[in-house]
């Protein structure tokens, strides 16, 4: 099965843009789920892999298309891995990147260990009943800055500091971020698996 079109089980505009940019050179069209009349669903599980599979199956069942879902989050070592799977709604509903950042910085005020990592778990289903989901993950290590810097990216990017670049992720250009980020690494992992299963028609 060669994939040319993928439904993306996400409404996050930043993620949608990243996936479309990365898959475009492979001649794979990434269609956000809202354009296919698929609404958001709850993420009831406590692990990234369960939430990712849950979202992928829901979207694939409605659209009938191969579907990609991700569950990702920021895990802060000094906060015992929080916010983790609750990263998107860390400050409550409705979702707000700025409120999440403000809450995390407040929680980190008296925390000495500021090391952290982003984790991304991707699930690709050829159909809702696919007996062999393809899973791929990526880890992106850094630390929590004391204040926000930069205007690129989304989510916690303005406070995720990379010492090797002397910058936050929000200060990096999109091309570099897509290469080194948790999502970029997970996608590279995913593409290797798609090549192995002969599911790509345009391999760079």
- Helical content class: 25-40%
- Return the string of H and E elements: EHEHEHEEEEHH
The tally of helices reads: 5
What fraction strand?
A: 15-25%
How would you state the average pLDDT, rounded? Answer: 92
* Alpha carbon gap, first and last residue: 18 Å
Rg, alpha carbons:
17 Å
Sheet/helix structural class: alpha/beta
Q: Biggest β-sheet, characterized?
A: 7 strands, mixed
Strand order of the largest sheet: 2-1-3-4-5-6-7
Unreliable stretches: none
State the shape.
globular
Count all strands and give the number: 7
Concise structural overview:
This protein has five helices and seven strands; from the N terminus they run E-H-E-H-E-H-E-E-E-E-H-H. The chain is α/β, with parallel strands linked by helices.
Protein topology:
Elements lengths: L4 E4 L4 H11 L5 E4 L15 H16 L3 E10 L20 H11 L7 E11 L8 E11 L15 E3 L4 E2 L5 H7 L1 H15 L8
Parallel strand pairs: 1-2, 1-3
Antiparallel strand pairs: 3-4, 4-5, 5-6, 6-7
Helix pairs in contact: 4-5
Any overview of this molecule?
With 204 residues, the protein is an alpha/beta fold. It has helices at 13-23, 48-63, 97-107, 174-180, 182-196; strands spanning 5-8, 29-32, 67-76, 115-125, 134-144, 160-162, 167-168. Strands 2-1-3-4-5-6-7 form a seven-stranded mixed β-sheet. The protein starts with a strand and ends in an 8-residue tail after the last helix.
Keywords:
alpha/beta, 7 strands, 204 residues, single chain, 7-stranded mixed beta sheet
